[in-house]
Amino acid sequence: MPRAKSDQISTLRVELGVKEREIADSMLAAYGFNRVAGPIVDLMKDVSGMIVLGGLLAIVYPKIILPTGEAPSMEEVVESIGGGILESIKDRELESIEKQQEFAQQQNQVFINLIGTIFERGRGIF
């Protein structure tokens, strides 16, 4: 049986409160994270996937040296990635400390030169 045409149009509006919006936001964030994390976890289950991941991480952490044997184990790959990341971070920290020390030495030299200039110009005054 066909439906009769409606002679009235009604608008229904649903408003969410603060708590409901927070819940919806967290659900959307979890859904988005799962869409990204799922394939990454699947890739990490395989040794060849870990080697690909290690190669990509080597762009950011240049100290990563992946094993080159015929059939590297998952442990070897994970250890080389973890060790490479730690070494890269330590190198960056050392570079940062060296740059800070160099900057401090430059500032000290500028200060010494300034004091020397002040005393040289002040000799004629006193």
What is the alpha-carbon Rg in Å? 32 Å
Order of helices and strands: HHH
Number of domains: 1
Helix/strand-derived category reads mainly alpha
Largest sheet: number of strands, sense, barrel closure: none
The portion of residues forming beta strands comes to: under 5%
- Mean pLDDT across all residues, rounded? 87
Number of helical stretches of at least 4 residues: 3
Stretches where pLDDT is under 50 for at least 5 consecutive residues are none
Commentary on this structure:
- With 126 residues, this protein is an all-alpha fold.
- The protein has one domain (18-122).
- It contains three helices and no strands.
- The longest helix has 49 residues, at 74-122.
- The protein is flat, with a radius of gyration of 32 Å.
- The model has no long low-confidence stretch (mean pLDDT 87).
Features:
mainly alpha; 71% helix; 126 residues
Secondary structure layout:
Layout: H1 18-44, H2 47-60, H3 74-122
Give a nutshell description of this structure.
The protein has 126 residues and is mainly α. It has one domain (18-122).
